[in-house]
Structure formats: structure tokens, C-alpha cells
Amino acid sequence: MTTRYPPTLRRLRQDAHVRALTREIHLQLDQLIQPCFVAEGSAGPEAVPGLTGVNQETPESLLRQTEADLRAGVHAFLLFGVPRARAERHIDWSFTAGQVRALKQRFGKDIWLATDVCLCSSTPHGHCGVLNREGDHLDNDASVQELAAAARAYAEAGADCVAPSDMMDGRIAAIRATLDANGLERTVLMSYSVKFQSSLYGPFRVAADSAPKAQSALRDRASYQLDPARSGDAWLCAGRDAAEGADILMVKPALPYLDLLRELSREFPQPWAVYHTSGEFAALEALAAQGLAPRAALHREILTAFRRAGANMIITYGARHARELLGL
Ligand code: PBG
Ligand code: ZN
Fold first, then answer.
1. Which residue lies with its CA nearest to atom 1 of ligand 1?
2. Which residues contact 273 (CB under 8 A, 6 or more apart)?
3. C-alpha radius of gyration, the chain, whole number
4. 3-class secondary-structure state, position 206
5. Is 252 a catalytic residue?
6. Contact 115, 33 (CB under 8 A)
7. Which of 35, 61, 154, 249 would staple 78 via disulfide (CB 3.0–4.6 Å)?
8. Residues 58-96 pLDDT 10s
9. What percent of the chain has pLDDT over 90?
10. pLDDT tens, 17-54?
11. Pocket test for ligand 1, best of 147, 165, 280 (most atoms within 8 A of CB)
């Protein structure tokens, strides 16, 4: 046979050994973060629609679930607390802080516990900040004050990381300053720095009880989350949060924004997280449930894409299924 130009590229695809040897992406369980939800005052754990194996937990079932997750090889968690009382100012963060304390008391250094910092599960209107008097815009600095208090409460309760997801201006600097002023300089700060306004948050908003209420003059989160049609803002946000002291940066959602993750992760040397959102995860599960895709291979392909695009860590509802789905 005559030698081909360009040379044959199928030679290194012909068997499993050579494919493994030439692979650059290796998924590992210690790159995955499992989100979990805990609600105050509910009768029992409630399944979250679309998210296989994810419940809105009670404080008791959260501990049991975490034990099971540890047995499944998961060690990193992102906690969302859903308190019963709702308020606009001087919000009481003690319910979620109490869950952080209980988890760290029980599991200590066996877990790395990040805690989401936002207002949307605590405000009566479901927005991620404090509304102005007219009710048509979020008051940035009042929101930042509340966020910093939440971050402090969670860090004092023992959270290894606090992760503000609100998208107010200046929150990273304010939170870092508050933590440092209170002897919490070891608490890691992970910023949802590049978070878009998206239709992919549906199951999450059920689980976190955090959808903007229909009667609010502010209908959606477009005035604070990023516009999918403008990528320059992603650069500005990443640069700003890095300069304000974010230890870890994030892109969210994941799959539709991998172009940005690819470029941003080359530009900014901070570690990058990608959030495979509830809607994205549920879409994959729905495809597999209809028999239209092989479930495990589907999840593996998508998680591989996140790593290839530059994510160091992946927040995914499937972390606790990783052994089953990914053979990890
Ligand atoms: C709220 C928050 C959201 C998510 C994490 N924190 C949704 C939103 O902005 O309404 C999304 C997570 C997901 O969909 O899995 N601050
Ligand atoms: Zn929020």
C-alpha cells in the first residue's frame, strides 16, 4: 500500500489500549462537586423533578445522604439552604449555618463543604438581592451587605468555601474583607463570576424555592445575571472577581458557554469551576429515559467536554452516580 499524505489518523484509534494511552482527559471523582439542598420544616425528603437521585433534604436526611455520598466516593459538596422564614433585610442565616455546623461536626475533614451564598431562597420575592423602594431594581450595596453577613455566618459555622451566586457588583471584595476581618482568612471564596441569565435553572428553582415571584415588578434576573448575547461582560466579570480576591472562578451554565470557558481558562490562571446546571442535567436524563441515548456514555461525553474546555472542577448533580455512570 502506498503511504498516505496526510497520514492515516485511524491508527491510534484502533484499539482500547492505544486510545487510553493517547487520551488527554481523565475524569476523576475528586474533580466533581455534588450540590445538595436542605429545607427547614419539611415533613421529609422530597425528590427534585428531573434530577435523578437528588432530594430537597431535611436536616436529618441530609446527614444520611452525605454518609451515602461518602461511601459513593464523593467528598466535595455545594450546599443550598432553604430556610422557612423570608425577609428582605437583616436576614437570619442561622438555619443554613446550622446545617453547615452539623455536617462539619459529623464529617469534619472527610468533606470539603462549599456553601452557596445568595438571597433568593430567603427573600419574599425570590430575587437574589434586596429590592429598591420602587421594586424595579436590586439595591446593590444593601444586597452586598446581606451577602457578606451570610458568608460570614457560613464560614464561622465551618464552611470550607463560600460561593456567592447573586451577581451583585463588589460582593467578592466585600465578602473577602468581612472574612479576613473576622479571622476567617482560610475560607476559600469561589465566585459564580460568569453566570448567565438562563432558562436552564428550572429544577434548581423548585429545589431551592427560589424562583422570582410573578407579582414582583422585576420579572426576571436579566438586570443582574449576564446576557448570553454579550461575551465581553464575561471578561469584565472574571477580571473584576479575580482582582477582588476570588480564589476560584466559575462559568455557568456549562454546555452552551464552553466557548467562554475555553478562552477564559486560558486567560485567567485561577482554577475554573463549571456548573452543569439542573436543566442541563435533567435534559440528559430525559434523553436517556426515552431510550434515545445510552445514559452512562452520554454523561461521560458531556463531562469530558467540560474538562477539555478547561474546567478544573465540575459541579454536577451526577457526582454521586459517578461510579455507576462513569465507571469511576
Ligand atoms: C441562585 C442560583 C441558581 C443556581 C445556583 N444558584 C439559579 C438562579 O440563578 O435562579 C442554578 C443551579 C442550577 O440550575 O443547577 N442564586
Ligand atoms: Zn440567587
1. 165
2. 33, 190, 248, 249, 250, 251, 311, 312, 313, 314, 315
3. 20
4. helix
5. yes
6. no
7. 35
8. 999 999 999 999 999 999 999 999 999 999 999 999 999
9. 95
10. 999 999 999 999 999 999 999 999 999 999 999 999 99
11. 165
Residue written as cell 475533614?
109
CA neighbor of 234 nearest in space, from 265, 196, 201, 194:
194
Tell whether the torsion through CA atoms of 61, 90, 154 and 171 is positive or negative: positive
Q: For cell 474538562, what's the residue?
A: 307
* 131 Cα–ligand 2 center, Å: 13
Which atom of ligand 1 lies closest to the CA of 201? 14
Angle, CA of 89, 94 and 96, to the nearest 5°? 105
Give φ, ψ of 315 to 5 degrees.
-90, 115
In DSSP notation, 185-205 reads TTSEEB---EEB--S--HHHH
Q: Which of 166, 199, 210 to mutate to test the pocket of ligand 1 (most atoms within 8 A of CB)?
A: 210
Give the chain's mean pLDDT. 96
Q: Which amino acid is at 72?
A: A
Alpha carbon separation from 193 to 171, 172, 178 (Å, rounded) = 10, 9, 19
Strand partners, 250: 273
Gap between the Cα atoms of 105 and 108, Å rounded = 6
The DSSP code for 37 is: E
200 CA → ligand 2 middle, Å:
14
Using the mean position of ligand 2's atoms as its centre, give its distance from the Cα of residue 10 in Å.
48
Q: Distance from the CA of 201 to the center of ligand 1, in angstroms?
A: 6
Cell of 127: 430575587
Task: For ligand 1, atom 2, name the residue with the nearest CA.
Answer: 165
Q: How far apart are CA 82 and CA 95, in angstroms?
A: 8
Could you tell me if 37 and 55 are in contact, meaning their C-beta atoms sit under 8 angstroms apart?
yes
Pocket of ligand 1 (CB under 6 A): 116, 118, 120, 128, 165-166, 201, 204-205, 210, 221, 277-279
